[in-house]
């Protein structure tokens, strides 16, 4: 899947996701609310080789509307949703937000995941290690740097699964 992020202003960006089957979706988003969160999802999912998180589900054909509905808390959530890969990825992404803002270390971020998941009666994912967190941190550093370099009206492109980041003239088509 090709993900195109177009910088519209300091406040907004447009995200277009084009699946490998040619279908696509486009949405305009408030950058302050979504951009870093989407970058954390991308870094976690691609570093972990996961296909059951936001980007993987979108690539598999789920629509943005379907994903938004499924992420809303609902009464009576069953254990099958709590134990799903999407829920686990969302928990890890939430716990890695401090890492993305340079307010937490990889060790603190991994510990936050453990503290969030263990009370649910399940072990934290084995793939959430300090090495994993460091790799996510480095990928986030690169993503944020690439985004800073995108001019207004310019587009940053990502591939899911990850095949590298391209901007400007060296875009992957």
Give a structural overview.
This protein has a five-stranded antiparallel sheet with strand order 3-2-1-4-5. It contains eight helices and five strands, in the order E-E-E-H-H-H-H-H-H-H-H-E-E. The protein has about 170 residues and is an alpha+beta fold. The protein has one domain. The N and C termini lie close together (about 10 Å). Helices cover about 50% and strands about 15% of the residues. It has helices spanning about 30-50, 55-60, 65-70, 80, 85-95, 95-100, 105-115, 130-150; strands spanning about 1-5, 10-20, 25-30, 155-160, 165. Mean pLDDT is about 90; it is low at about 75-80 and about 165-173. It is globular.
Provide the residue-averaged pLDDT.
Answer: 88
Order of strands across the widest beta sheet?
3-2-1-4-5
Backbone CA Rg: 16 Å
Q: How would you describe the oligomerization state of the chains in this entry?
A: single chain
Main sheet properties:
5 strands, antiparallel
Report the portion of residues in β strands. 15-25%
According to DSSP, the number of beta strands is: 5
